[in-house]
Design a protein that fits this description.
It is built from 25 helices and seven strands. The protein is mainly alpha-helical. A four-stranded mixed β-sheet has the order 4-5-7-6, with helices on one face.
Length: 524
């Protein structure tokens, strides 16, 4: 029998050893300290967003897509209310509504919650990437990302704005790559803006950021702690061409120029919307979010002075614009957080840097697995999500409305209009949170006068209100409880439904003509 002789045993074991080394290296990277810190971002985002499902706009967004899928066209006229029925309106967020509806069709409220968390996690992991690209300091980048997340909580929820901010992060990543390396996939910008304008009005923030980015590169010089470098001729031509193409791409939408001009419409034709809705109010510096904003501003100022940070002109202008918007309108703090995070990461040099040689992969693995298990365990089920909704919306009154359909006009609480219309499409509401269309017609002003007790009975008579569905402790409900012309039909834990039992005011010739026009439109 011949004997097999291996001349070099190491040659056989070498490939096996290489595979083991690669596997161990991959394992160390997968359970490294930076990955563990990213797991904490996942946890914090999930915790900050876990109570934000019942967004006031969600319901009519779902209803819009339901109409689109049923009739194969966008709802260009109001059919949800009796106050502005037949009025023309545009839906500037129609494309971003579709993912939420598909998620609802697939898994109900759980699907919406999963989609919301996925988009939020994607946004802030993108912010983390942007921070690390600028600072090359993972710990500082994580802290800056946490800061941005806290500032952004004003928009946490199943909101179409999340898709807009996802587009903003993509835009900033492309621009940062172009600034640092002199080249980037700028061809992405026109299709990005084409999608963006059909998803949310925050596209105008992106156009402004792109314009600032280009304009600041037209200057070169140093002014104290501020520096600017001029674009090369080739870079400038590329940027201007993509800016022009992006502006043209904005007109690729179902509404044409009207959608492009909608941000101006909101700024100048909707003063009550801007003045009365809490999100559009300026920052309250007595609240936790306002205190954090003050700390951020003070920290940026002090860090820049102590570290003698040299500001890029682009960064300085973007930060000033972002904080002006965020301080003027609280909802824009999300935008401010995204803009300021990369600069904050650069300023956090005081934080010790990551040292791979002292990393403990098995400890990191235990923490990562614990965090993921906690997120999965804490994820709300269908019953918990329905309970969240019932705590904010009048789910308790729905069985009563089904068994006792209203036989007249219903004045509903503003925040409940979309929910009532989604749950009972046959119910024509007084108004919902599409403030623009109701402000154009004067309905929103009348609603504000009514809840402000500026001749409420006159307004109830003007709209021939027979039922009032409001929070049970609302001042209007307390007033009507004491009025002999009104009775309580339903009195729940959250809501109360009152019915007029006294005589209905006589119709004016103007209201009769309006009613006939409405009936003719509905018949058509």
């Amino acid at each position: 029998m011949s004997q097999l002789v291996i001349e070099n045993p190491a040659a056989v074991t070498a490939p096996q050893n290489n595979r083991e080394q690669r596997f161990r290296s991959a394992l160390r990277k997968a359970f490294s300290f930076p990955v563990m810190l990213q797991a904490w971002i996942v946890l914090i985002i999930a915790r900050l967003a876990e109570k934000n499902l019942p967004d006031v706009d969600l319901w009519w967004h779902l209803r819009n897509v339901q109409y689109l899928f049923t009739h194969h066209r966008l709802p260009n006229f109001d059919t949800y209310s009796f106050t502005v029925a037949g009025h023309r309106w545009i839906n500037p967020e129609w494309l971003a509504e579709i993912p939420y509806y598909l998620a609802w069709r697939a898994l109900g409220l759980e699907g919406i919650e999963i989609l919301m968390l996925a988009v939020l996690e994607g946004i802030f992991l993108g912010v983390l990437y942007l921070c690390y690209t600028r600072s090359k300091h993972i710990k500082a980048s994580i802290l800056a990302c946490w800061l941005a997340a806290f500032l952004g909580t004003i928009n946490f929820g199943p909101r179409t704005a999340l898709f807009g901010y996802a587009c903003l992060v993509i835009l900033l990543i492309v621009l940062e790559r172009f600034k640092s390396k002199g080249r980037a996939p700028l061809w992405l910008l026109p299709p990005l803006f084409c999608l963006w304008i059909n998803m949310h009005g925050s596209w105008c923030l992106g156009i402004a950021a792109l314009g600032i980015f280009i304009a600041c590169g037209l200057l070169e010089g140093e002014w104290g702690m501020i520096a600017a470098s001029r674009w090369s001729r080739r870079q400038l031509h590329q940027l201007l061409a993509m800016f022009a193409a992006s502006c043209v791409a904005l007109f690729v939408n179902p509404y044409g120029y009207r959608l492009v001009l909608y941000p101006l419409d909101m700024a100048f034709r909707q003063p009550l919307n801007m003045a009365s809705i809490q999100e559009w109010a300026s920052v309250d510096f007595h609240g936790p979010r306002g205190i954090v904003v003050l700390i951020v501003l003070a920290g940026l100022f002090c860090s820049a002075l102590l570290a003698r940070h040299r500001w890029r002109l682009t960064d300085l202008v973007l930060v000033l614009v972002a904080f002006y918007g965020g301080l003027s309108h609280e909802r824009l703090l999300f935008f401010a957080g995204i803009i300021v995070a990369p600069i904050a990461a650069e300023l956090l040099e005081i934080v010790p840097r990551y040292r791979p040689e002292i990393d403990k992969p098995w400890l990191n693995a235990a923490i990562i697995c614990g965090i993921l298990a906690f997120v999965v365990f804490r994820f709300p089920g269908p019953a918990q999500l329905e309970q969240q909704v019932a705590g904010q919306y009048p789910a308790e009154v729905l069985p009563y409305l089904k068994s006792h359909p209203p036989s007249g006009n219903v004045l509903n609480f503003y925040e409940w209009g979309g929910y009532l219309g989604w749950k009972d499409p046959g119910l024509k509401v007084f108004m919902d949170s599409r403030v623009d269309i109701f402000e154009y017609a004067g309905v929103f002003k009348d609603y504000l006068d009514l809840i402000g007790f500026r001749d409420p009975i006159r307004i109830l008579d003007k709209y021939r209100i027979r039922y009032v569905l409001f929070p049970r402790d609302a001042p209007l409900v307390i007033l009507l409880r004491a009025n002999p012309n009104w009775k309580v039909d339903f009195d729940g834990r959250l809501s109360a439904l009152l019915e007029r039992v006294g005589p209905m005011p006589a119709d004016s010739p103007k209201s009769v003509a309006k009613s006939k026009r409405l009936q003719a439109w509905q018949g058509a």
